[in-house]
Amino acid sequence: MLHKIRELCEARGITIAELERQAGLTPTSMAKWNANMPAVDKVAKVAKVLGVTIEELLEDDPADETCRKLDETSRNFEKPEQEAV
């Protein structure tokens, strides 16, 4: 996912540091995203700044375990809660 984010930053003429600032993330926090799964809300902020969807960020490498887990989490995050019957 970080590879895709870097490509999008380059295409938009911004640095990762600028993206982190605009998304309200701590400096260098995204450097850890390859080793640790980021929270869905942080990915959503990055996607919003870049003008893409969370899914577009996850298209980097479908075999990547971090992307797969985050994709599953984001689906649950976006689903409305169902009422108990």
Q: Give unreliable regions as ranges.
A: none
Distance between the termini: 39 Å
Helicity level, as a percent range? 55-70%
Main β-sheet description = none
Q: Report the total helices.
A: 5
SS content category: mainly alpha
Tell me, what is the CATH class? Mainly Alpha
CATH architecture annotation name: Orthogonal Bundle
What is the H-and-E element order? HHHHH
Q: Classify the beta-strand content into a percent band.
A: under 5%
Number of strands: 0
Q: Quick one: CATH superfamily?
A: lambda repressor-like DNA-binding domains
Determine Rg (CA atoms, Å): 13 Å
Overall outline: globular
CATH topology: 434 Repressor (Amino-terminal Domain)
Number of domains: 1
**Mean pLDDT, rounded to whole units?**
82
Task: Supply database-style keywords.
single chain; mainly alpha; 434 Repressor (Amino-terminal Domain); 5 helices; globular
Plain-language structure description:
The chain is mainly α. The protein has a single domain, classed as Orthogonal Bundle (434 Repressor (Amino-terminal Domain)), CATH 1.10.260. The protein is globular and about 30 Å long. Helix content is 58%, strand content 0%. The model has no long low-confidence stretch (mean pLDDT 82).
